[in-house]
Amino acid sequence: MTHTPFNGDRFIGIELRKLIARFGVRHIIETGTWSAHSTREFRTMVPGRIITIDPTYEHLFAEFGAAAVDDLNRQGISAILGDSSKILETVLRWCVPLDPTLIYLDAHGGGANKSNVNPILEELDAIGRVPGVRLVAIHDFQVPGKPWGYNGGDWGRGFEPLSYELIQPQLAVIFPSGHGYHYNDEAEGCQRGIIYVYPNA
Asked: Is the pLDDT of residue 96 over 70?
């Protein structure tokens, strides 16, 4: 299967570019590399660091061969092998504590610890522990009133969708002065939901 950035959804790239321009974003951190098509697209969006985290290079190597990580490095992209729920905080503290940064969350269950639990809450907790200007985009998100696909999981309360209600407590920590958010209202390709969250203007 041939992959494309954002699972073939060009509207995501258009919206991210608008937010990057609006907030002066310089760096992007991604969780859930897969075959790194979206990662390569991020390189065209910002001048600073691009960091992507995934527990395996399996999909990357399957599509681009054993030299895929070296190729990313040549493009100024750092591919980090590991469990995003455990290392995202370290990555945030190491790389960009001050400059505006977009964090694109697209990791799934079945990661480094072979758990079926989506790591989203641990990732958001990690972001909340590191001060700085953040924009957060979460892929595979439930969009009210839209038929887009989304993920779900059991975060200790029984199975529930990946929704705003689920992550609202973490957002209050990440954005102590308040936040705005919106969902995608158009989708193509795999037609998945996404939420964009940012500081209050």
From this structure: no
